[in-house]
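Quick log. Single chain, no ligands specified.
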Amino acid sequence: MLLGAERVVGDLRRYFGIGLSPGAAAFTGSRFEHLAGGGDRPEVADRITAEDLVAVQTLSVTVPAPVALDILEGPLGARLSGLLHAVPRDLNMADADADAVADGSPADQAWHLLRDRPDVGWVIAGKLLARRRPQMLPVYDRVVRCAVGRPPSFWLALHTALREDDAALHRQLVELRQVAGAPQTVSALRVCDVAVWMGHRAERHACPR
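-> predicted structure:
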């Protein structure tokens, strides 16, 4: 299990730029959740902003310009706002009912709405929503998929894992964040993502597309 590796705390510190030597730089993704005050701040929590479009670029993806404009100025943005309003902002996945991330939920509808746009797909859709709801919705890309597999629903599989054994995994992630010295504004889901991504990347696995 990648979260049990001894290097996890060191990986988190390196990713978020904690205690780096002079001249060393954090990963650009360390700004994903914090850029412009975060994606879940109350005044913008229910709409995707230009800052979110920049934030996902720190995770090496770019929203196509026509889709970005539709999000910022068109009907796509209005539809997403209505769905986001129904996704809890201040509740973490471990405390939420499975219905919050189940097929057909507002979060799932928002994901499909984004995923099905030209040149967007499941990775970009997931990262945009993770920026909006960092405690509830995880980042899930090809490296993480290579590490953990392809369950029918990654959200539901992760939800189950986080709640098992009296939320032992969730507590472990929070503890890893504390030991590493990462900001509390980094969600447990993001700690999981970074730990798995860094560990799997370090192993130099050849991940299928």
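The mean pLDDT is 93.
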